[in-house]
């Protein structure tokens, strides 16, 4: 069982199930023992119960990471660690009796019910990553799971500790629902690594702002519960909502938990607005639970709506980027000759017009611009003798030779069956003629081997022309073609246009 892997974050960082169970057990024991010690006299039900939230968070993280056939074993390991921790904490604080064992079973029932109902909603987008998940989370953790476990918990409190059955049930449901609602999202995000990723994706200013907002929430909570002489609970909504809007769901979860911890400590010490309303500890617990529930139910839907908006904006940005890439790809395909990869005539014309505009009006000292017209010699004979596939191979071979012998700014265009143009920015006519001769020699020295083993020695005729002010594209091409025809008449050498 310890060899099973349970991912603790969607990015692939993993933790063995045994390690997850150990973490769950340690945290659950610490929270259970501390909560009973601070909020209970050892016989009644604690005012808030966060221990189950840790186990629920670990189960929700472990479940998607293990295969379905190994999931029961992973759950059993985590639940066993939680049960031992729960029993140990209860025995440490309440003494040796049957109560800890029975209460531990009730807590396991609650955790299993909540995990089973929440597991489909917790995959991928997080526990409270969408508004549709918030409603299920509130219903399951705030009512269904605590009510089911509360039947056994209240019966145990009545049978062993002599508590009123109805009041024990109400206290159990309020305590466990508050613990699950407040602490489960926080531990889920913390153990899954959401807080670490959130901070790593922010710059130092955003991190400072997030930390400052949590400090502001803590300061406001301390002021309301320890300093203010009047009940000012409404003053806490401001910093909590500010953290929700600025940091999002994670900020809301952390802020509500800070308020819960500070308020619980103050109320147990008889301080703060809750203690001002009534001296009865039970009524204080119920009032504080009602306040936290109201704060939580105010923040979570807002946080979920903000998360949904951010996801929608991110999806829109991804769609826009995909459309941009697709448009660029389509434009590239529209500009490229499918066979050779050279520019087609329309794209080559646009490229040439741009270069001609850059060269126009520069005067005799401006950057020169030259054009080479190329025709593959005896191309029809290659097609007739060896087939059109061999002719296609010859054209591809020619473009590969041209591309290998040209610079990055130079452009190659296929303007006919075996007719090509090469644009040479910054190149005068003499240099263009030399380049054409070098390319012609490179093609002659690099024969093409066909699939049947036939070796073809190809050659080409070239004509070079230089751009002059006032030329249009067709004039420029005509000048290069004229030089090409002169080269063919002269025996397929390289000719230059005056």
Short account of what is shown:
The chain is an alpha+beta fold and 498 residues long.
Structure description:
- The protein is α+β, with helices and mostly antiparallel strands.
- It folds into two domains: 316 residues, no CATH class; 152 residues, Alpha-Beta Plaits (2-Layer Sandwich).
- The strands form three sheets. A five-stranded mixed β-sheet has the order 4-5-3-8-9, sandwiched between helices. Strands 1-2 form a two-stranded antiparallel sheet. A two-stranded antiparallel ribbon has the order 6-7.
- A hairpin with a 6-residue loop joins strand 1 and strand 2.
- Helix 3 packs antiparallel against helix 4.
- The protein is elongated and about 120 Å long.
- The termini are far apart.
- The N terminus is likely disordered.
Strand adjacency order, main sheet? 4-5-3-8-9
Poorly predicted runs are: 1-14
List how many beta strands DSSP finds. Answer: 9
The outline comes out as elongated
Mean pLDDT: 82
How many domain regions? 2
> What is the CA-CA span between the terminal residues?
86 Å
Q: In this structure, how is the largest beta sheet organized?
A: 5 strands, mixed
Query: What is the CA-atom radius of gyration, in angstroms?
Result: 39 Å
Helix content: 55-70%
- Compressed to H and E, one letter per element, the order equals EEHHHHHHHHHHHHHEHHEEHEEEHE
The class by helix and strand makeup works out as alpha+beta
Portion of residues in beta strands equals 5-15%
**H/I helix tally:** 17
